[in-house]
Fold:
Amino acid sequence: MKLSTRASYGTRALLDLAIHSRVNSTITLKEIAQRQDISLSYLEHIVTPLIAGGVVRSVRGNKGGITLAKQAKDITLKEIINLLEGPTALVECLINSSTCAKSGGCVTQEIWAELGQAIDHVLEGKTLQDLVERENNKDGSKRMYYI
Structure:
């Protein structure tokens, strides 16, 4: 299983937003794109499903930008991945049993389901706040600070 850059960049963008957010303020996509070395046009496409899914809120106007729609502790990695990648099922037959004649009686399907449940368990147990705390606990000498 391999997550796309969409999930990777989207998670990094949300982490950046959580770290740099201040109460009642927004951050521009341009700022996030520069800090995270992500193409602005690609970031715009990534943010769209996050807005539609209620994770990010967009504010228009002079002081416009984006902000988290809810607290970082309430945003799980599972929610982020589902919005950006879709279901985390490892094989199609776990989503749609009609795609395989052996579905329901296949031993390998059972293993893929167990593995998927383990992945979901990890993703459900980690929040955006957990990532913020991990980032804050990393070696500070590797961080870039902007003034």
